[in-house]
Input
Amino acid sequence: MSHVLPLSGKTALVTGASRGIGRAVAVALASAGATVYCTSTKAGGCDETLAAIAALPAGSGAGRALVVDVADPASVEAMAKHVLAEAGKVELLVNNAGVTRDGLFLRMSAEDFDAVVGTNLRGVFLVCKAFARTLAKAKDARIVNVGSVVGLTGNAGQANYAASKAGLIGLTKSLAQEFAGRGLTANVVAPGFIATDMTAALSPEIRDGMLKTIPLQRFGAPEDIAKTVLFLCSDGAAYITGQTLVVDGGMTM
Ligand code: NAP
Output
């Protein structure tokens, strides 16, 4: 006997779904039945994600690949036009694409600041804008923005990144207020230290030091974040909006 998956019939878009957290989110949403548009900045960048989605049990949602640079308004516009022409709607928007350009404040250039804010904050603004109308039209659409605990705590060496992720919380709360009347919820998931390419770049000393600060005594997996995003996209989270949900093994409690 077949049963209907919770997100069957929904269309989702996940930015930065080529690897790491974004890939895990895309697979989780597809496993719950959604058709998932997966983005990378490179053609073929989401091939492995699409393969993982194709390997899900029969009845799961399908994956589709898109190329977009969220920092570029024309690229975002073209991507949204393509998705809306093909799918006709998007109900679940997960803004996950993000970059770091770490450095101590005295050495941080304005270019490093703009590059990080341009992708992590302005990029989310552009993508939300491109899909705002279709999201507002749906009865129970969801925006989930992937922030960081650093947006709440700040971090030495990450002034640009912390500012972008703190700004994301303000953007999300404002969207939550403006669109609440349309049944749209908007929330932030704030990961702590998750084992991905982004954190693999850190030195073993920094990684060991971080591990000591995590009460649950392990780094997070992309799937830890994906499960939280899936929850926020589910019916069980229908009454949650404007919130920042910290998923960090207790690191910043
Ligand atoms: P990752 O492995 O470095 O992957 C980053 C993703 O973002 C890639 O898919 C990349 O696409 C995409 N991307 C980068 N710049 C882009 C742009 N201009 N336009 C569109 N897509 C772009 O990162 P991750 O660790 O999974 O992190 C995902 C999110 O979680 C980020 O927002 C990050 O800030 C946040 N986060 C991560 C951690 C952690 O510990 N890992 C902790 C807190 C928050 P390409 O395929 O083109 O490279």
